[in-house]
Amino acid sequence: MTLDPAKPQRISSQPAQPQSAQSQSAYSPRANSRLWEFYRTMRRIRCFEERVGELYVRGLSAGSMLHLSIGEEAAAAGVCAAMAPQDSFTTHHRGHGIFLARGADPNRMMAEIGGKAAGYCGGKGGSMHIADMQLGHLGANAIVGGGIPHVVGAGLSYKRLKRDAVSVAFFGDGAMQQGILYESLNMAALWSLPVVFVCVNNQYGMGTRIDRATAETDFTRRAAALGLAAAEADGEDVEAVHAAAAALIGGARRHRPAFLTVSCFRFYGHGRMDKSPYRTADEEAAGRRRDPVARARVELIARGLTDAAQVDSLDAEIEAEMNAAIDYTAAAAAPELAAMFRDVFAPGEPAPEPLADRLDRLLAEA
Amino acid sequence: MTLDPAKPQRISSQPAQPQSAQSQSAYSPRANSRLWEFYRTMRRIRCFEERVGELYVRGLSAGSMLHLSIGEEAAAAGVCAAMAPQDSFTTHHRGHGIFLARGADPNRMMAEIGGKAAGYCGGKGGSMHIADMQLGHLGANAIVGGGIPHVVGAGLSYKRLKRDAVSVAFFGDGAMQQGILYESLNMAALWSLPVVFVCVNNQYGMGTRIDRATAETDFTRRAAALGLAAAEADGEDVEAVHAAAAALIGGARRHRPAFLTVSCFRFYGHGRMDKSPYRTADEEAAGRRRDPVARARVELIARGLTDAAQVDSLDAEIEAEMNAAIDYTAAAAAPELAAMFRDVFAPGEPAPEPLADRLDRLLAEA
Amino acid sequence: MAAQEITYRDALRQALDDAMRDDETVVVIGEEVGRYGGAYGVTKDLIASYGEERLIDTPISEPAIIGAAVGAAMTGLRPVAELMYVDFLGLVMDQLANQAAKIRYMFGGQIGVPMVVRTQGGTGRSAGAQHSQSLEAWVMHTPGLRLAMPATAADAYHLLRHALTLPDPVVFIEHKALYARKERTDLAAPVAPWGQATIRRAGSDVTLVTYSRMVFTALEAAAALAERGIAAEVIDLRTLNPLDMATVAASVRRTGRAVVVTESCLTGGVAAELAARIGEECFDYLEDPVIRIAGEDVPIPVSPALESAAIPQPPVIISVVQRMLRR
Amino acid sequence: MAAQEITYRDALRQALDDAMRDDETVVVIGEEVGRYGGAYGVTKDLIASYGEERLIDTPISEPAIIGAAVGAAMTGLRPVAELMYVDFLGLVMDQLANQAAKIRYMFGGQIGVPMVVRTQGGTGRSAGAQHSQSLEAWVMHTPGLRLAMPATAADAYHLLRHALTLPDPVVFIEHKALYARKERTDLAAPVAPWGQATIRRAGSDVTLVTYSRMVFTALEAAAALAERGIAAEVIDLRTLNPLDMATVAASVRRTGRAVVVTESCLTGGVAAELAARIGEECFDYLEDPVIRIAGEDVPIPVSPALESAAIPQPPVIISVVQRMLRR
Ligand SMILES: Cc1ncc(C[n+]2csc(CCOP(=O)(O)OP(=O)(O)O)c2C)c(N)n1
Ligand SMILES: Cc1ncc(C[n+]2csc(CCOP(=O)(O)OP(=O)(O)O)c2C)c(N)n1
Ligand SMILES: [Mg+2]
Ligand SMILES: [Mg+2]
Q1: Percent of chain D clearing pLDDT 70 (strictly above)
Q2: Is residue D131 among the annotated active site residues?
Q3: Residues of D in contact with A131 (CB under 8 A)
Q4: Of A207, A219, B132, B248, which residue is 20 to 30 A from C150 by alpha carbon distance?
C-alpha cells in the first residue's frame, strides 16, 4: 500500500495480513489471524471502561472527569497492534483504551483513576494524566491538543539519536480545530520525522458534532495539504484500522510522517454526567450499531476462527480481571500527604517549602 | 470567475476590468484602466518606504524595528483597490504599504514611525502598531499571526449587525505556520463570514526561506482543505492581484470566505539591520527583477496609457510628498509625558497610579 | 422583586439573560455555550431566547475564540467569550495580554475593546493539575485588563452586569466550587459598586483579606475564631482590578494585623501584591508581619485528599490568627 | 584562561558552545537560531560547529516549538528552545506551564523535562508594547519551572551552563539591552553557585534588591548615593527560582531598609513577592516599609522618551533612598 499525500486514501475494510498470532490468552483459535488478539484487546477495553463507570458510581473515582472510550476500541487496538515495543505515544483525555491496548496493567490504571498511591502516577495524575515511561506512554493530556507536539519532539530525538522508533499522537476530532495540531503536522513533514498523528474521530467534541465544528470534515485533506501521508479508516473494522496503521507507521519508520483518522462513534456522553441531550436517540442507536467489538465477535465466529463458547469464556475471564481491578482500587491506599511536595522538581533539587513549615518559621520569628 | 475551494486557482495575469478611473492625481491618462492609479499607489509606497529607511539613518525613527514592504507593493495596491470604503482590515508588522494603499496620510504615518505625538497613535504604537479606525485599519501587529483572528470577529459583527462590509487580514508567509491562522480559517468557513485572508508571500520569514519553513509551499491547498475559496496571484502583476482580490472579496461579501496568496519578493533585509547574508546575490537580483512598480511603469507606457515624461512627473510629485513627510516628522513634537498614563483604560475609568505619585504618597506617610 | 434562593450559577445566568435582553450587541461566544448550555451550565437554555446568532458555539480553538472576540468588540459587538477553564489561559494569553489589553493604548486611545472573558478556576472537583488552577495573578499583572472574582451570587450577578457596561476588557473568573452554592438574595437590591471591596464580617482584632471562594473559608475561620473570643474582619475584594486598597488599608489600620488568604499558589500570586501593598500603606500600624496563607507551590494533585490539602482550609487560618494574637 | 573583555551575548554563546561540545544531547531549537545566528546573535556561527541537526531552525510556530522541546526532553535530548521575545510567552504558556512544568508531578515522578527556554525581555530598543515586556512574574508563579535572569556576562555564562545540567525545565530570561554590554572577566573563574544571590555592592544603610538589567540601574544609583554619604547594598538575585531569601533577609536585617527594583510593571510583579517576603521575614528589623520601584502599570509605549520614563531610572531610586533616610 503506497500513500500519496496528494491523494488521501479511504480504507474501509481490508483483509488482515497473515501474521503470527500474539494473543496473550490461553485461547488462540487460529494462528494466522490477529482478529482474536484484536477482539481480546477490544473486549478488555470495553469491560475496563464499563468498570470505570462503576467506579464512579461507587464513589471510588477521583473526581468526575472520566471520559470513556466505549465505541472507540478499534482505534486503540488496531493502531497499538501496529506499533513496535520501542515506539512511544501520547494520548488525549479519552485515552484509557489506548493505554490498555498498549499493554497497561488494569489494576494500576484503575488505581490511578481512583487517585490511589498504587496508580501509575501515584494518584497525582488521575484519569486524564496517566503515563508510563516503561511502555512508552509519554502521557495523557487534559488540554485538547496538548500532547500533540510532544511526539514531534520524540521524533526529533529518535532521528537525532538514531533510534528505530516511531512516536504516535492520539487525539480527538475536536483537536482538529486546535492550532497546535497544524504547527505539529507541518514540523513533522518539514523534518521528515518518524511520527504518526492519529485522530480518533468519534464525531463529537463534547456536545458539538464535527459538522458544527468545521465546514470540511474530510480531515485527510488537511494533513495532505501540509505534506503528510494521510488515510482514513473505518473504526468499526479493527482489521482495517490495523492495516492502515501498519502501513502508515511503517512509512513513518522510514521517515515518512503520516496522519490517520479513524471514524467511530462515542457511545455515551462526553463525561460521566453528560446524558447527551444534544443528539437524538436514533442517532445514538445508529452510532452504537457501529460496534467494533460486536463486529469482531461476529467475524470471528463467521470465519470459523472460534466459536461462541470460546468467546464467552474469554469474555468471562476478562470480566473477572476487570472486576478484580475495582477491588484492587477500592482496597488501595490514598497517597500519603508528604507525596504532595515530591516531584515538583527532581529528587535532591530545592523543593517548595510547605505552607505549614513556612508559617511555623514566620510565626516563631514574629 | 468562480472559485471552487477544491480547485485552487492560479491567476498569473488577467486583463484589468474596465472601471472608472479613481486616480486622485492630476494625471489621468486613460479613463478605462486602473493601472495608472495602481502605479501611483505603488510608487507612493515604494517612495514612502525608502524615506522610512532614511528616517532610520537620520536617527529619527523610534527604534530599529522597521520592516519595509519594498517589492510587495502590488499586494497592497491590488487588494486595497478591491476593498470598499466600509471594509476593514488588519496587517502584520510589514504593513506600511497596505495602509498607504488604503489612503493613509504619509505625514501621520511617518510621525507614528518616529514616535511623535502627531502620529496616528500619538507615538505610542510605532511602525508595528499603526491603526486608524477612520480608514477601517483595525491595527498592525507585532505578533506574527496576532491580527488574523480579529477579522473573524469583525466578520461576525458585520454578519450579526447586517453591515455590508468585508474584513481582510494581511499577513506574511511566516504566519502560514502559526496555529491561530488555521483556527481562524476554520471559523470563517464554518460560519460563512465576510472575511478574506491575504498572505503576502515574500518568500522569507526573517532569514528562513519558505521551503525551509514548510514542506508544502502551495498555501492554497491548506485553505481549500478547510473549506475556503482559495487563489494565488502573481505579485509582480498588480492587475492580476487586483482581479483575484476583487473576485474573492466579492465572494466574501456574499459570505463566501476566501484566501488569497500573493507571491512576491522581499527586496531588502527583514529589518533595517539585516543585510540578508543567508541568501545569494543571484537570488536577490532575480527576486528584485520581479518588480511590480517597474513592470507597471513599462506596461503603462507600452500600452500607450501614458508616456515617460508624465510618469517622471508623477514620480517627482510623490518624491516631494514623501520628503515632506520626513520634514513633518522631524519637526513634530514627542508625546508629552502625561500621555503615558492615558489610554490604559478608557477616559474617566480608574487609571493606573503613576510611580512618582505612589512614592510621594508612601514616603510622605512613612 | 423579593429575596429568593438563588445559586451562583443561576445568578450568572440571570446576568447574561438581562444583559442580552437590554443590549442587542451582547453575544456569547465559546465552546458549548449554546446548545449544551455551558460546561458548568451557566448559559443553559439562553439559546432558546437568543438563538444561535447570539449564543455562538465554537470549535475548540481558544486562541481564535479570544481573538475573534477582540475583533468583534472593535467593530460593534460586546462579546462575552467563555473560556471553559482558567487553565486554558496558557493558550490565549497572547490574544488577551498582547492584543485585548494593549489595543486601546497602542492605538493612542482610538478605540477600546469592550469584551468580557468569563472563565472559572480553582479546585474542588479533583479535576487535576490542568483543570484546577487559580491563575488570576497572570491577569492582574497585565495593564489594560480589569479583573473580577465574585464570591457571592449577588456579586456574580451585579459584577457581571457591570462588566458588560465597561469600555475595556474584563476577565471575569468564577469558581467551579461555587456554582451550586445557594444564597438568599434579591438580585434587584443594590450591592457595593464595581471596584469597591465589601466587609463580609466586621472585626477588630485582625483583617482577613481575600476574594472568590476563599471568602467562605475565611468566614468559616472567623466564625470559629469568634467562639474563641477573637474578632476577625473579613474583606472580600470582589475585583482585583480595580483594587480597593482604601478599604483594606482602613481595616488593617484599625486591626493592626493582616492575613491574606488566596487559593492560588503562594509564590508570585495575588497574595504577594496584597501583602506588599498592606506593608507599604499600613507600615506604622502593623503589630505583626502581614501573613500570606495561600495554596502550596505545587501543581494541583488529582487525589481528593491531596487536592484539599493543597489549598488553605479554615484550621490553618484559625491557627495563624491565634498564634499572631498569642491566644 | 585570563580575564578578557567579553559581551553578555558572547558569554551566552560560549556557554552554548561549551555545553554542546560537552554534551551531545544538547540541541538548540527555535526561530532563526541556525543560519541566521539568532535574532540577537546569541547563536551566531554555532551551526558551523554543530550543523543543522543540532541548531534546528523552525517555522514560526512557538507553541509547537516549546511542545516539541518538551517531547524531545522526555526522550533523550536536552533541548534549548529559543523564544525570540519573552512577549511570546502568551503563545506558549500552555506548553510551558501546563506541560513542561507539570509533567514530572502529574506523572508521579516517572520522568523529568530537562529543557531550557532561552528568551529575552525588557525595554531599551523602542520595540513597542508587544516586544518590550518583562514577564518573569508569570513564570515565577508556575510551580515546576526554574527561572534565571542573569545581569552580568559571567553569570550569563555560568547560569546557562548550570541550567543545562538541571533535571527540570528552566526559563532563562536575558535582557535585550545587555547583549552588547562588555565586561572584563575570566569565564573559567567560578561565580556564586546557582540559586545563590550575589551582593554586587556592600552597604549598610539600605538594601536594594534586584536582578537582570536593573542591577546596573541600582548600582548607578548606589554610586550616586555614596557621593551623598549613603551606603546602599545592591543584591543581584540571579535566579528567581530558586529564590535566595537568606541573602536578602540577612542584608535587610543589617540595613533595616529595603527597596526592591524591577523593570516589570508593578502590580502583580516579582517586586510584590520580594516585598512580601521581606515583610514576612524581616518585620522586626524594618525601619521603613519595603518600597517597590517598578515599571509603570502601562503597556510599553514606543516613543523613546516615554519608553525610558516607563521604567525605573537611577534618579527615582536615589530620591526614594534619600527620602527614606531623611537625608
Ligand atoms: C484546550 C482545551 N479546550 C477545551 C477543553 C474541554 N474539553 C475537554 S474534552 C473536549 C472535547 C474534545 O473533543 P475531541 O477532541 O473530539 O475528543 P473526545 O472527547 O471526543 O474524545 C473539550 C472541549 C479542554 N480540555 N482543553
Ligand atoms: C509570534 C511571533 N514570532 C516571531 C516573531 C519575530 N518575527 C517578526 S517578523 C518575523 C518573520 C515573519 O515572516 P513573514 O510572516 O513571512 O512576514 P515578513 O516579515 O516576511 O513580511 C519573525 C519571525 C514575531 N514578531 N512574532
Ligand atoms: Mg471527539
Ligand atoms: Mg515573509
Answers
A1: 100
A2: yes
A3: 103, 106-107, 110-111
A4: A207
Give the pLDDT of residue A273: 87
Among chain D residues, the shortest Cα distance to A146 is held by D95
Is residue A15 scored above 70 in pLDDT?
Answer: no
Nearest CA in chain D to C105: D299
Ion ligand 4 residues within 5 Å by Cβ = B 172-173, 202, 204-205
Q: Where are the domains of chain D?
A: 4-185, 198-324
Q: What is the mean pLDDT of the segment spanning D110-118? A: 98
Across the range D131-158, mean pLDDT stands at 98
Q: How far apart are CA C204 and CA C193, in angstroms?
A: 24
Shortest CB distance from D289 goes to which of C92, C98, C283? Answer: C283
Full pLDDT tens readout for chain B, 366 residues: 334 444 444 444 433 333 333 444 445 555 568 999 999 999 999 999 999 999 999 999 998 789 999 999 999 999 999 999 999 999 999 999 999 999 999 999 999 999 999 999 999 999 999 999 999 999 999 999 999 999 999 999 999 999 999 999 999 999 999 999 999 999 999 999 999 999 999 999 999 999 999 999 999 999 999 999 999 999 999 999 999 999 999 999 999 999 999 999 999 999 988 999 999 999 999 999 999 999 999 999 999 999 999 999 999 999 999 999 999 999 999 999 999 999 999 999 999 999 999 999 999 854
In chain A, whose CA is at the least distance from the CA of D67? A149
Which atom from ligand 2 is nearest to the alpha carbon of C94? 1
Which residue, judged by its Cα, is nearest atom 25 of ligand 2?
B143
Task: Report domain extents, chain A.
Answer: 9-365
**How close is the Cα of A190 to the center of ligand 2, in Å?**
18
pLDDT at C198 exceeding the cut of 60: yes
CATH architecture of C198-324: 3-Layer(aba) Sandwich (3.40)
pLDDT at position B15, please?
Answer: 35
Q: Quick check: helix, strand or coil at residue C307?
A: helix
* Contact flag A65-C288 (C-beta cutoff 8 Å): no
Superfamily of segment(s) A9-365: Thiamin diphosphate (ThDP)-binding fold, Pyr/PP domains (3.40.50.970)
CATH 3.30.70.270 describes domain D4-185? no
Residue D162 annotated to the active site: no
3-state secondary structure of C289: coil
The residue contributing the CA closest to ligand 1 atom 19 is A205
Instruction: Kindly state the helix (H) or strand (E) to which residue C226 belongs, with its residue range.
Output: helix C214-227
With left for phi above 0 and alpha for psi between -120 and 50, is residue A116 left, alpha or beta? beta
Q: Enumerate the residues of chain B whose CB falls inside 8 A of the CB of residue C77.
A: 153, 156-157, 160-161
- What DSSP state is assigned to residue A151? H
Identify which of A198, D98, B190, B28 has the alpha carbon closest to the alpha carbon of residue C64. B190
